[in-house]
């Protein structure tokens, strides 16, 4: 346990930044894996060699893509874990109640920032090329679609825990 920690004010911004980065990186990995596997099948399925190229591709890149599908839920669990860490960190931090007003302003700024990030993510999901890849991110899509509300609840809840020590 960290003793003497005096602040946890910027954890909300860390949640915003890491959430969008985690989901985007996971989505790009899945998109690249599927695209590479499709291109390999296009180029190599009709080759005449001693090995069955379709089977070879399915045994290598196909298994990678199966593993990549777990990234859809891993991204959700990482986001939920960060939210739980914010609540635990807010409870462990000792802060004076006079800093509650600046904390509310920080939460308001975080909600505004999260609204723009949520809109940008919706534009990515609406894209014809990479959008279908993000359709499988059911939990992360829900959290990022309601990101401003989530950030407001986490920010205010974390502030209550930080300043009242309930």
Along the chain, the helix and strand elements come as: HHHHHHH
Biggest pleated sheet: none
Alpha-beta classification: mainly alpha
On the 0-100 scale, what is the average pLDDT? Answer: 88
The stretches of 5 or more residues where confidence is low (pLDDT under 50) are none
Helix residue percentage: over 70%
Number of strands: 0
Rg is 21 Å
Shape: elongated
- Alpha carbon gap, first and last residue: 18 Å
- Total number of helices: 7
Overall domain count: 1
Percent of residues in β-strands: under 5%
Any overview of this molecule?
The protein is mainly alpha-helical. It has one domain. Helices cover 78% and strands 0% of the residues. It contains seven helices and no strands. The protein has helices at residues 11-44, 53-68, 71-92, 100-126, 131-134, 138-145, 147-164. The model has no long low-confidence stretch (mean pLDDT 88).
What labels would you give this structure?
166 residues; mainly alpha; 7 helices; 0% strand
Give a summary of the structure in a few sentences.
By secondary structure, the protein is mainly α. The chain has seven helices and no strands.
Would you spell out the secondary-structure blueprint of this structure?
Elements: H1 11-44, H2 53-68, H3 71-92, H4 100-126, H5 131-134, H6 138-145, H7 147-164
Transmembrane segments: 12-32, 73-93, 100-121, 141-163
Keywords: Membrane, Transmembrane, Transmembrane helix
């Amino acid at each position: 346990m960290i003793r003497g920690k005096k602040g946890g004010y910027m954890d909300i911004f860390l949640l915003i930044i890491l959430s969008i980065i985690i989901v985007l990186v996971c989505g790009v990995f899945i998109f690249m894996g599927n695209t590479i596997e499709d291109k390999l099948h296009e180029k190599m399925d009709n080759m005449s060699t001693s090995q069955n190229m379709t089977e070879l591709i399915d045994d290598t890149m196909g298994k990678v893509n199966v593993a990549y599908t777990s990234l859809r839920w891993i991204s959700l669990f990482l986001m939920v874990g960060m939210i739980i860490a914010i609540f635990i960190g807010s409870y462990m931090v000792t802060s004076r109640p006079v800093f509650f007003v600046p904390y509310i302003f920080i939460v308001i700024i975080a909600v505004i920032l999260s609204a723009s990030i949520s809109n940008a993510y919706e534009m990515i999901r609406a894209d014809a090329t990479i959008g279908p890849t993000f359709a499988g991110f059911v939990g992360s899509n829900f959290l990022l679609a309601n990101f401003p509300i989530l950030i407001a609840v986490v920010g205010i809840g974390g502030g209550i825990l930080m300043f009242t020590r309930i």
